[in-house]
Amino acid sequence: MYHLLLIKRWIEDIMLLPFIGVGRLIALLKPSAKEYDIYFFFPFYHIGGAEKVHAQVAHAAGHTNCIIYFTRKSYNEGFLAEFKQSGCDIKDISKFTDNKWLYFLNLVYRGIITGYINRQQQKPVVFNGQCNFGYKISPWVKKDIRQVELIHSFNSFSFIRTPFLPFISTTVMISQQRIADHLAYYREIGVPASFAEKIRYIPNAIPVPADVKEKSKEQFTVLYVGRGGLEKRLHLVMEIARQVHAKDPAVAFEILGDVSDVINPVESPFVKFHGNQTEGTVITNIYAAAHLLILTSSTEGFPLVVIEAMALGCAILATPVGDIPLHVKTGVNGYLFSAIENESAIITEGVNHILELKKNRPALETMAANNINYAKHNFAIEKFNEAYRETINPAN
Question: How many domains would you assign to the chain?
């Protein structure tokens, strides 16, 4: 299968030559005014866990001699300010590269940008943050230019990237479980074993606060953070909230993030909806006031929201997916559901665990303390920054 994918890519490359040639000519006639140390390629800057990590990577390794290309249309300006604060030049080319009616411009831009990259006197580094356009240009980048990719999970990009593996110097993955998934996939389709040696594990991280204020002993708040994607199974959270509210209306449920595509707030008056928030202090205060983070996802890598909740003293209630079981231990810093696919079991266990923790404050406080301590020792942003700097520019 792997060799067939390579043949398919070679055929596509031949068909693309005229478009690449036009792009290269444009790059020659209109050269870049500046050379860059790093070319970052990210799809979006809107609010999302992956986007937040991408902004952190830009802060860790980027500077004024770097450029970030955004290649897909973002839904909002969520993390745009954070990307700008990295000091990198920002260029949103989505109107050219994310327009199905003018798709030929996407093809031409592959030639333009690789023309800029290849013509530099000083060799840059290309960093691809799970960006389709970043993979599509990889065959057209000079072979002696380092290309680094970041993979968040085992999903459609795991298949999109496969024929472009020969061009990737280093693969960063954020989840030990997802590394295992990719290695199994490599073996299944016949990817050479040498590509496994290119994978490097760098877990997500955050600036862990030095002090966390004590949570209310009178209130008990359950928090969901994220979007309303299909794999998040937000309908399970809402059913758990409905059943808990029927048994104990004093338990508060809150949702941080835009979930309007799957939930009508009017139909759920027992839930407080914060919507999308971009102000760091507001987000921190929401986490800090919550007692329990709930996740009912069918699949994850290792979500940043778990790290944020741990650092701010929330117990965790989650499905045992991705790397979550490596960091969350039942009875120590939260609870893992006993099932992933059995939705009725998840609902029943969720209701029981929430009502139990509300009554058992000593256990809840111990879990909170354990998570704060765990986050400080495992998810410090300093280690994250150092790891990305060394990976992107090993000589430095």
Answer: 2
Q: Which amino acid is at 167?
A: F
Query: Mean per-residue pLDDT for 366-395?
Result: 92
Two tokens, residue 108: 């031409």
Q: What is the pLDDT of residues 159-192, one digit of tens each?
A: 899 999 999 999 999 999 999 999 999 999 999 9
pLDDT at 267: 87
Question: For residue 210, is it within any domain?
Answer: no
Range(s) of the domain holding residue 326: 220-378
* 378 token code pair: 């495992």
What is the C-alpha to C-alpha distance for residues 157 and 132, in angstroms, rounded to an integer?
A: 8
Same domain (yes/no): 122, 225? no
CATH number, position 352: 3.40.50.2000
Q: How far is CA 396 from the centre of its chain?
A: 26
**How many Å is the Cα radius of gyration of the chain?**
23
In a domain, residue 215? The reply is no
Per the CB < 8 A criterion, the answer to whether 31 and 2 are in contact is: no
H helices within 86-175, ranges in order? 94-97, 103-119, 132-137, 156-160
Whether residue 92 is contained in a domain is answered as: yes
Average pLDDT over residues 261-276: 90
Sign of CA dihedral 230, 279, 372, 220: negative
